[in-house]
């Protein structure tokens, strides 16, 4: 049955348009490139910088404003490069500094800005500083760059506190002192090979300011700051009975709370400590010395949204990922609530809101939304787990993306979502590389399923990912259907749907636009708002929703149908953007 909506509109403005929004990052659509899985030029099966350069035309045609590159620095790759051994060099797996400069110049020539990842919470255990710390004595300056502590209990055999690692298992590892005796312990919120730095040490501050300058001098447009809420720990490192899990999303049946937050948040003594803000104030000053509106974006899994907004106060970072939006279930009231809360929290500090649905740490939204409770967020999906409905998931994912791109602010896309890629949910466990898999005692499959090399050409070996057909993770056979070349120029394909939406978003300046809820269209299964003069209607329910008389469609996740009444209808599980004549 069609829901016929009254044609008179009543609206509630929650965010005015911001014509003075001058800085590019306030409205930018930023595409995340995960270098090892984007495109491989060398043929070793691992993506690289020349591979990225070769595919920049795809990104230019897509119409994104910037790319963010996950780490490509020297690293033993125990956590896919988030374990950095040298912050000022490119890992040979990915190329050279000259390859980086060439990629940056090409991107800039195409009008695409480049943000790089900064990993300041921890180094690799192969970083020169950590090697020196292991060789030095307890209490030495070398150990003082990290969080070394004596153990508790007889002989110091127990870890200094009860914290657990985000990836599972204890957050402390004991070292053997240079004289061969069992020694101190060091803190690692992540893998054993990722020792946490001590951000009370001025030398650590100086080093990272120098790293910022190294990349700013090369011309990068900004930094995505890894674990931005974790660098400072509560004094004394007190015990904490809760989990240190960083990703604490929506759970079954949960539809959000008053402040728009969806999970318990991270409240332990390792997260969101006041001291982190001093670091960002200092970095803000460093970036301000450079031209071109360079920016910092926080990866901070912090709730409620009012706490997250503290990272983007005027003298701190510029953006923060909106994980409350990402973790909201496919539920119209919950989505309205999180959008209102997000805009309210960021408007209060004069920052843009960001929107994001997928990244390299979560199950792709095309698969999350195909789960029995759409939008739940398992930490990976394996062959024995309930499998998502692929077709429904993709349909909803496209609807969710159109909803997101219709919102004012800045939006992040994750490589492959423009192809509608699903998670690889049947990956052979023997291939898994995410330390989560083994650190959790094989209970959490982890993130490999969203990191599978992209399919560029349906008929080529490795779907065109590399010239040899090699891929560091096996691609599922279904990737043939999603390859970029079979979607190019095909009306209604996912890539063309993204491209069309991005073009309209840019042309109509929706990024700096407004948000007013359309109360006359809103319903239990409908999210409806206007941004400037564009009406965005997301229909999460099974019945079509009629658009007002005279609506002219400017973009849609699925083409609207015309009802017997002559009115256009938003089909089930679809989003339509329309202008009213
Ligand atoms: C990154 C992860 C990484 C972790 C440790 C995160 O938040 O996005 O991929 O494993 O930080 O660096």
Quick tags:
single chain, Immunoglobulin-like, TIM Barrel, Oligo-1,6-glucosidase, domain 2, six-stranded antiparallel beta sheet, 15 helices, 23% helix, globular, binds beta-D-glucopyranose
Overall description:
- Helix 5 packs parallel to helix 6 and helix 11 packs parallel to helix 15.
- This protein is globular.
- The chain folds into 3 domains: 3-9 and 514-579, Immunoglobulin-like (Sandwich), CATH 2.60.40; 17-123 and 201-498, Glycosidases (TIM Barrel, Alpha-Beta Barrel), CATH 3.20.20.80; 128-187, Alpha-Beta Complex (Oligo-1,6-glucosidase, domain 2), CATH 3.90.400.10.
- Strand 16 and strand 17 form a beta hairpin.
- Helices cover 23% and strands 16% of the residues.
- The chain has helices spanning 49-54, 56-62, 97-109, 128-135, 202-218, 276-288, 305-309, 323-326, 332-347, 365-368, 390-405, 435-439, 479-482, 484-487, 494-507, and strands at residues 11-15, 29-33, 66-69, 73-74, 86-90, 113-118, 148-149, 172-176, 182-187, 222-225, 295-298, 319-320, 354-356, 410-414, 515-518, 526-531, 534-539, 545-546, 551-556, 561-562, 568-570, 574-580.
- Mean pLDDT is 94; it is low at 3-7 and 248-265.
- The two termini are 26 Å apart.
- The protein has an 8-stranded parallel β-sheet with strand order 12-11-10-6-3-2-14-13.
- It is α/β, with parallel strands linked by helices.
- The structure holds beta-D-glucopyranose.
- Beta-D-glucopyranose is lined by residues 79, 82, 119, 190, 226-227, 299, 360-361.
């Amino acid at each position: 049955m069609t829901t016929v909506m009254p044609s008179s509109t009543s609206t509630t403005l929650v965010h005015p348009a911001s014509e003075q929004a001058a800085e590019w990052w306030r409205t930018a659509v930023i595409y995340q490139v995960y270098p090892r899985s984007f495109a491989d030029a060398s043929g070793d099966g691992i993506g690289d910088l020349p591979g990225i350069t070769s595919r920049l035309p795809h990104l230019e045609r897509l119409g994104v404003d910037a790319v963010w590159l996950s780490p490509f620095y020297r690293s033993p790759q125990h956590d896919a490069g988030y374990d950095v051994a040298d912050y000022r060099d490119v890992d040979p797996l990915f190329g050279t500094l000259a390859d980086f400069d060439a990629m940056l110049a090409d991107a800039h020539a195409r009008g695409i800005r480049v943000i790089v990842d900064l990993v300041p919470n921890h180094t690799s255990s192969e970083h020169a500083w950590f090697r020196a710390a292991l060789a030095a004595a307890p209490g030495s300056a070398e150990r003082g760059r990290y969080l070394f502590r004596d153990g508790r209990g007889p002989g110091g055999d127990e870890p200094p506190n009860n914290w657990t690692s985000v990836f599972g298992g204890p957050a402390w590892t004991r070292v053997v002192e240079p004289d061969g005796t069992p020694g101190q312990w060091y803190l690692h919120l992540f893998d054993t090979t990722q020792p946490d730095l001590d951000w009370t040490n001025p030398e650590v501050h100086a080093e990272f300011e120098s790293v910022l300058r190294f990349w700013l001098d090369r011309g990068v447009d900004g930094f995505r700051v890894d674990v931005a809420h974790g660098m400072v720990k509560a004094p004394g490192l007190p015990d904490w009975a809760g989990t240190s899990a960083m990703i604490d999303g929506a759970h079954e049946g949960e539809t959000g709370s008053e402040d728009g937050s969806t999970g318990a948040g991270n409240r332990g003594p390792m997260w969101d400590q006041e001291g982190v803000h001093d670091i960002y104030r200092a970095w803000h000053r460093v970036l301000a010395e450079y031209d071109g509106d360079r920016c910092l974006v926080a990866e901070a899994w912090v709730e409620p949204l009012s706490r997250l907004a503290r990272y983007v106060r005027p003298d701190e970072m510029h953006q923060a990922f909106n994980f409350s939006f990402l973790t909201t279930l496919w539920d119209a009231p919950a989505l309205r609530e999180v959008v209102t809360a997000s805009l309210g929290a960021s408007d209060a500090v004069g920052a843009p809101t960001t929107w994001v649905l997928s990244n390299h740490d979560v199950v792709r939204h095309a698969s999350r939304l195909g789960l029995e409770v759409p939008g739940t967020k398992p930490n990976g999906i394996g062959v024995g787990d309930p499998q998502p409905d692929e077709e429904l998931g993709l349909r909803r994912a496209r609807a969710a993306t159109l909803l997101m791109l219709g919102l004012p602010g800045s939006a992040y896309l994750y490589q492959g979502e423009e192809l509608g890629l699903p998670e690889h949910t049947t990956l052979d466990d023997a291939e898994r590389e995410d330390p989560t898999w083994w650190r959790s005692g094989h209970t959490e499959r982890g993130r490999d399923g969203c990191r599978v090399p992209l399919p560029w050409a349906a008929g080529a070996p490795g779907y065109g990912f590399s010239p040899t057909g090699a891929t560091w993770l096996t691609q599922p056979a279904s990737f043939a259907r999603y390859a970029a070349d079979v979607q190019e120029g095909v009306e209604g394909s996912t890539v063309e749907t993204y491209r069309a939406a991005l073009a309209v978003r840019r042309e109509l300046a929706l990024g700096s636009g407004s948000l007013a809820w359309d109360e006359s269209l809103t319903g239990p299964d409908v999210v409806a708002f206007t941004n400037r003069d564009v009406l965005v209607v997301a229909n999460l329910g099974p019945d079509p929703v009629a658009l007002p008389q005279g609506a002219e469609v400017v973009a849609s996740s699925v083409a609207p149908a015309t009802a017997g009444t002559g009115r256009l209808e938003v089909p089930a599980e679809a989003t339509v953007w329309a202008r009213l004549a």
